[in-house]
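Internal tracking record. Fields below are filled automatically when a chain is submitted to the structure queue. Please do not edit lines marked as system-generated. If the sequence contains nonstandard residues, flag them in the REMARKS field before resubmitting.
Queue: standard
Priority: normal
Entity type: single polypeptide chain
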Amino acid sequence: YTAAHVLYNTRPLLKDFSKTLGKYKYQERMLWLTDTYEDNNGVATFLKSMLTEIRKRNLPIDICVCSSTLKSDDNLIVLKPLKEYSFSIYNNQPLRIPDIMEITNLFKTGEYDRVISSTEGFMGLAALFIKKAYSVPAYFYVHTDWMTFAKKVIRMDKQYLDRTKRILRTFYQQFDEVFVLNSDQHKSFLSSTFNISKNKVHITAHWAEEGFKPGKNKRNKLFNIHKENPVIIFAGRLSAEKGVFEIPAIYKKVKEKIDNIRIVFAGSGPAERDLKLLMPDAIFTGWIDHKKLPEYLSSADLLILPSKFDTFGYVIIEALSCGVPAAAYKSKGPKDIIVNNKCGFLSDTPSQMSENIITFFLNPKMQKNMKIEAIKRSKSYSSDIILDNLLKNINLQ
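SYSTEM-GENERATED OUTPUT FOLLOWS
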């Protein structure tokens, strides 16, 4: 570390010097570090979409991931983990420990001039190591609201919450720029919670892949029900933090008014067994390959997302792109995406969510209009616009 730091500490000066001369410009290449890529989560889904765009645009960006099963490919560098651990809370999402010296050597030999990380774990620390050792700009892409997770899922007491906040604040402040996914998080990073200057925090977003578009109603084939049956769908990880245990009460109230309605859970996770006991008449598809998800969404009438701490709500954009309105809580990511009573519903309570869903299914005209508005709204989340802004903010355009 010391040798690299001494050797490369003049890099910023030399970069400014070459800019003034107009020659000897160092190539611009970025290494994107992540602890998750092959897992079934929003971060991995986004990074796969990002890799597609990198290849399509021929961008000077490589994604580096730690995995014992993946293989390196164009713009995808796979490093073998030193150790791998699984935890009960995320048993299908193991913790992989990379070799930090292998990462730093990769950065040097690959002649990158900046680094970005999507995860706060080992790869996030590796990004800061590279920043300090090689005197390069480092960026961070925030996918998860860890403070809300610590409070509502882990249920930390105030003492440990304060410690967590201080650790996260120190961590994020080390980066040159930080990218967040919703307006609430943007305010939080500017506030005393994280105390990062305004010009260093940018709001970004996700986009739906090209395959997400309105399709045929295949509920007879996919869900084994009549195509006229109204359908609510939940798509994602079946876990407590996703709010899935609020669905049984919401669904029960809706079913009292609309007796032929059905609910589909397109996903898997630790809550699946308990949900099956609570909702024996629900349809469980298991985990759906992401490329097949559009036909499942297109075969539903309404997406339900009862999570209260999603930083964005990737599946909302995917559903809207398929012409499927969404019912969510008025929190963080969803409230930035959903235009209430136009392309979906924003609720404050489970009871209000039930009433909104009932109103939707009892009003055919509303259903038709909302499907049109859902597609219109999804077009606001264009990969071209989002990626152009991101490249501009990391000075790679």
